[in-house]
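Problem 3 from the worked examples.
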Amino acid sequence: MEIIVDKDKKLVEVWLSRIESATPETEAALKLIYDEYSKMKFKTVVFRSGGGNLSDYVEALVRNNRTKLAKKDLAQ
């Protein structure tokens, strides 16, 4: 678990691995983090590692974006 606190933006980032995401201890720790920082009016964001292949997802995203741009260009 990696915790990054940005006091200027009042933001807490919590980065979890796939293994950490699956444990009840992590959920208990997250609750403590939420409680602690919500008292200080901070927003807490949790990033959980996914189970898929990142390069496949990025390729699909780029392909989708290029298709949208091509359709927009054709419409103009």
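Problem 4, a separate protein:
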Amino acid sequence: MNLFNQIKEQVTARQVAEGYGLAVGRNGMACCPFHDDKHPSLKVDKGFYCFGCGEKGDAIAYAAKLYEISQYEAALKIADDFNLSINRSFDPEEKKKLNMRIQERNRVLDIKERFQKWCNSAVDLLHEASWDIYDVEQAYKGLPVEDCFNDDFAFLMHSKSKIEYWLDILCIEDDITRQEFFLSERKEVEGLAERIKGAKERLLTSDWRNLGYGDAYCG
């Protein structure tokens, strides 16, 4: 009996998937790890099939796809990870190289995940900053133009177009453009949001608020 048949006789795709961290419901359904799956579309039992992206196969195919390795490497990995009884084992050097490849893959995935989290966080920060500017605009609506001649108000008005431009990059542009933006503008994004919040607090607690002028936009 060849290596692949030995593996498939001893473990199912569900056992392997759960062993590698997939949460499978009682009905055998799970969120597919091979695409951005918000609702369970992967059926896992002896084999697996995704009704969303179409990926399918057996336990070996699942591990190969998950770790981006060959089916032969996946079979040996399953045998080693699940302590299966087979008549073929990893060469120590072969195992070391495979583990290094998997570690590198996991490192890349971790970087991608952290980058995406930052992008989502930056979008939230910039939307909040936009609302902060809007609040100030509404508060200053109707005031004499000379009452708006201060550094904080000018800073907020100048920041509007920059925020819109940045949001376009984060929400519309491709990954390469967003990565370049992250490398060059990350600190400025976070710093700008803080400066806008501080300017808003100063403007909305300044003396004019106690003079009964009412709501806001100069112009």
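Solution to problem 4. Residues 208-217 have pLDDT under 50 and may be disordered. The CA atoms of residues 134 and 214 lie 15 Å apart.
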